[in-house]
């Protein structure tokens, strides 16, 4: 069975990053809650544990804890930040507030040569983010490194294979962080390092081929986005023409999107594809609806209705394939730091199986988006699909703020197409995580051809964000000249826009989409 590293999630915002870093070093990783049992860790063939950081103080009431038995299994443990403090506490050390809190870059000095901090300089820059420190180390621990404000910045246990670092090796601001993680994986856990995307493809294709019997069919709701597209191609590789993809044109797509998706799939893969033009029914139901949650509800409902009537005509369709990713599974499975607030009711096909009685096939339940992109690349999907920015299920409905009308959709489509054209032309598409235009329900006064322009003129916002996980994001410091060209063309070429603004809000507190 495949080896794994279990990342125990104490609520750090970096937990997923730790899991990714481990996989990037060719060891499979799984995020587990602090309640995980030794039995479960044996089932997943864990060869090491990483205790993540977390927002709490270990002594705080309700602070996440794990059972001490995890430290008694003989498995190597690496505690990071809160994880270090917890491991030390469980093994007899004391933790308290630091004299000075440390946030950001600081200099670490290695004071005791050891296998965890091997092949790194004696003095190096590391990233810290903590208010507590281990202030009394039990005699069983050996201090390995220090910083000016943190005398115990790395430790190892004298007898058990338990290690800890107060800094964050998983972030790129710790330049030797990856080497430290590799030391843990290979020198301490003795991992084999056989996790590769190529082997994932082979194993998954075989598993699907075995599961879907020769007389059964699979339906895949294709959105044209990277996850469902790569899922479709992987399925096709496993079961060929027993796959039917359904692409619903809900009238809320971007300029030429339906044609592009259809051409790509028919051209490259010969997959049985049904394109359902349902734009009229969606737009009719959305007429006069302004509230974002109401829009999402209607779209989700209509989508199910369309899917239902289409799938009735596909004989013996027992399975529904979806492009669900690992972060989706983790986020909906449990949340260590508390119950996440429902910020937006994300529309997806998750409501379908219960309604329609399909069994689910979700080949990417264990992968991150960048890994799905690698799968897509290896399966030969074209770059324009593999590297597409995400596009929300409710489409332009949540980007035409307020009333959705065919006229307003047309304005937004044209503006959005110009923006993307300019971004591509300036070679910025791959540098931005997501870029789009938003049409505001605001008129502003302008002067066009020496005359006042107001009636029928709208403000268009441009949103470009940098993010890895779409949970937090910063606005892209995009090239001014690119913004100037996009703004100029939008105002000149799109009838109904006389002002363009650039959105400089980060997430949080804003979200990526406006609605
Ligand atoms: P927010 O706006 O929540 O967006 O910061 C985070 C990411 O999710 C996308 N998004 C959605 N995707 N259905 C989807 O399939 C939705 O209802 C939805 N709302 C937002 C958004 O485009 C961004 O990539």
Q: How would you describe this protein?
A:
It is a single chain. With 515 residues, the chain is of the alpha/beta class. It has 15 helices and 20 strands. The strands form four sheets. A nine-stranded mixed beta sheet has the order 2-1-3-4-9-8-7-5-6, sandwiched between helices. A five-stranded parallel beta sheet has the order 12-11-10-13-14, with helices on both faces. Strands 15, 18, 19 and 20 form a four-stranded mixed beta sheet that branches. Strand 8 and strand 9 (162-165) form a beta hairpin. The radius of gyration is 26 Å and the shape is globular. Residues 334-341 have low confidence and may be disordered. Xanthosine-5'-monophosphate binds at residues 296, 344, 346-348, 390, 392-394, 434, 470, 507, 511-513.
Mean pLDDT value: 92
Amino- and carboxy-terminal Cα gap: 45 Å
Coarse shape: globular
What ligand species are in this complex? xanthosine-5'-monophosphate
User: Class by helix and strand content?
Assistant: alpha/beta
**Major sheet description:** 9 strands, mixed
**Strand arrangement across the biggest beta sheet:** 2-1-3-4-9-8-7-5-6
Helical residues, percent: 25-40%
Spans with pLDDT under 50 lasting ≥5 residues? 334-341
Please tally the β strands and state the result: 20
Over the alpha carbons, how many angstroms does the gyration radius reach?
Answer: 26 Å
Number of helices: 15
Strand content is 15-25%
List the helices and strands and how they pair.
Layout: E1 4-8, H1 15-24, E2 28-32, H2 38-43, E3 46-51, E4 77-80, H3 82-90, E5 94-110, E6 123-136, E7 141-146, E8 154-157, E9 162-165, H4 177-188, H5 197-211, E10 217-222, H6 226-239, E11 243-249, H7 257-269, E12 272-277, H8 279-286, H9 292-311, E13 317-321, H10 326-333, H11 352-356, E14 359-361, H12 369-378, H13 383-386, H14 406-425, E15 434-439, E16 446-448, E17 451-453, E18 458-466, E19 474-475, H15 480-493, E20 497-502
Parallel strand pairs: 1-2, 1-3, 3-4, 4-9, 10-11, 10-13, 11-12, 13-14, 18-20
Antiparallel strand pairs: 5-6, 5-7, 7-8, 8-9, 15-18, 16-17, 18-19
């Amino acid at each position: 069975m495949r080896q794994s590293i279990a990342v125990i999630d104490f609520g750090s915002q970096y937990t997923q990053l730790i899991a990714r870093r481990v996989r990037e070093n060719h060891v499979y990783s799984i995020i587990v809650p602090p309640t995980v049992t030794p039995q479960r860790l044996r089932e997943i063939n864990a060869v090491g544990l990483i205790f993540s950081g977390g927002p709490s103080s270990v002594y705080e009431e309700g602070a996440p804890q794990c059972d001490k038995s995890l430290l008694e299994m003989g498995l190597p443990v690496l505690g990071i930040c809160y994880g270090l403090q917890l491991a030390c506490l469980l093994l007899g050390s004391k933790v308290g507030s630091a004299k000075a809190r440390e946030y950001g870059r600081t200099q670490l000095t290695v004071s005791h040569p050891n296998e965890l901090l091997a092949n790194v300089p004696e003095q190096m820059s590391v990233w810290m983010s903590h208010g507590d420190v281990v202030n009394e180390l039990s005699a069983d621990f050996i201090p390995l490194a220090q910083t000016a404000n943190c005398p115990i910045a790395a430790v190892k246990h004298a007898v058990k294979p338990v290690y800890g670092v107060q800094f964050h090796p998983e972030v790129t601001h710790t330049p030797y962080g990856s080497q430290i993680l590799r030391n843990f994986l290979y020198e301490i856990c003795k991992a084999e390092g056989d996790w590769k995307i190529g082997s994932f493809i082979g194993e998954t294709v075989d598993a699907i081929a075995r599961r879907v019997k020769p007389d059964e069919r699979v339906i895949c709701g294709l959105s044209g986005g990277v996850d469902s597209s790569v899922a479709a191609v992987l399925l096709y590789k496993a079961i060929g023409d027993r796959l039917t993809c359904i692409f619903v044109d809900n009238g809320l797509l971007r300029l030429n999107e339906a044609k592009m998706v259809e051409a790509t799939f028919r051209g490259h893969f010969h997959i049985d594809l049904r394109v359902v033009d349902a734009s009229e029914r969606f737009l009719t139901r959305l007429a006069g609806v302004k509230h974002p949650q109401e829009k999402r509800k209607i779209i989700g409902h209509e989508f199910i209705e369309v899917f239902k009537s289409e799938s009735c005509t596909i004989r013996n369709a027992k399975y529904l394939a979806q492009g669900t990713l690992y972060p989706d599974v983790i986020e909906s499975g449990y949340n260590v730091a508390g119950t996440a607030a429902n910020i937006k009711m994300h529309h997806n096909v998750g409501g379908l199986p219960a309604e329609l009685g399909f069994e689910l096939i979700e080949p990417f339940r264990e992968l991150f988006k960048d890994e799905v992109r690698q799968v897509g690349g290896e399966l030969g999907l074209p770059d324009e699909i593999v590297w597409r920015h995400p596009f929300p299920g409710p489409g332009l409905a949540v980007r035409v703020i307020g009333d959705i009308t065919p006229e307003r959709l047309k304005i937004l489509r044209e503006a959005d197409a110009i923006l993307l054209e300019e971004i591509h032309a300036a070679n910025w598409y791959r540098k931005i995580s997501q870029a789009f235009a938003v049409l505001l329900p605001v008129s502003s006064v302008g002067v066009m051809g020496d005359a006042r322009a107001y009636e029928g003129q709208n403000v268009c916002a441009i949103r470009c964000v940098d993010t890895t996980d779409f949970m937090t994001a910063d606005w892209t410091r995009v090239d001014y000249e690119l913004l100037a060209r996009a703004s100029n063309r939008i105002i000149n070429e799109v009838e109904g826009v006389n002002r363009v603004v650039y959105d400089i809000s980060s997430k949080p507190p804003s979200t990526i989409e406006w609605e």
